[in-house]
Amino acid sequence: MRRNPALVRRPRGRHVLFAVTVLVGALVVPVVTAAPASATDYPTWQDVQRAKGNEQAKQSEVTKVQAALKSVQADAAAKSQIALDRSAAATQAEAELAQATQTATSLQSHADQAAATAKRAQTRAGRLAADLYRDGSTDQMTTRIATAGNPDALLYQLGALDQLSTTWAGVLDDASVSAKTASSLHDQAARAEDERASLAAAAEAKAATAKAAQQRADAAVASTESHSDELYKQLATLRDSTAETQRRYEVGQAVAAQAAAQAAAAQAAAQAAAAAAAAPTPSGGASSGNAYPSTDGVAVDPAAAQAYARSVLGSYGWGDDQFGCLVSLWTQESGWRANALNSSSGAYGIPQALPASKLAAAGADWRTNAQTQVNWGLAYIKSSYGTPCGAWNHEMSVNPHWY
Prior knowledge:
The chain is mostly helical. It has helices at 18-27, 30-33, 45-51, 55-135, 138-147, 151-238, 243-275, 302-312, 323-334, 370-385, 388-397; strands at residues 15-16, 285-286, 290-291, 341-342. Keywords: Signal.
């Protein structure tokens, strides 16, 4: 989808109009805010059968089923968004821990090297001190000068002794500096290790939180899907259609509503920008690129995702000639990875929906299912650009790229 309104691109330096995305997030995600339907809210098959004989009753029942669909999807959508957020936080914590571990290891290595250097300097200073002790007695030297048969030779020895004394002083100073350096580095290494240990505990806690959130989301998705399947069948019965046809229709309608809200938000943002033209206008924030949260439960298979997308192009009225544009578009956006998350904007999935929860319009399993993401993305493209090539042409016509 697009980062302008719907998505954010790959790590290729894309940008997002934050004013637009904030408005879009407020306008197009009612799915996540609705309360989940209870069992008593679901239309019964008896209601469906009774309504079929009366056009007015049938339309009323259709509305009732559609409302139940939105309601049942809400809880799973909310839990899936939480799971995505927790997974991203756990992935970030792991990255911080890895960096802290590298820093602590490097500091400890430097501290050990400095300690070894100090030890060598101290050893050398000790040896020089021993040499001075053997050769440097002032009284002995004075006597040797007075009684020497060759005073010049002895004076030479005195010069050598003075040089030895100067060298010893320098080595002693080096040993002192090296010892202080080693001590400082050991202190830094100790602090770095404390930080690493703290981050390790935080990473472990966030990983556990992410796992629990994923389990809650998985349970909610399973429950929602079972209800959704029956509700689509009820719609199909009321409309003399098929469940799959009704699913596609409802997804298309939901995504079209999202796109309309997005367009309205973009127009409102443009008007606000024009009104504030005299004031400095903040630029779109630069994308820091896609991250890939934990793949637990997510089938990351770009080739399979492309194969599925190709197989359903005809359902949207497109020929195989559109496939190349679609491949280029989503390769640039996400690399066709179902767990692609833009770390700066929050855009997610193969089509890079922004906010990520927009994908819930296509199915409760939007966080983990590449096919659900593809269904949403194709519906978005059809509603906003008509064809994948239309979306790709737009993507390449703007800089930074977005669709």
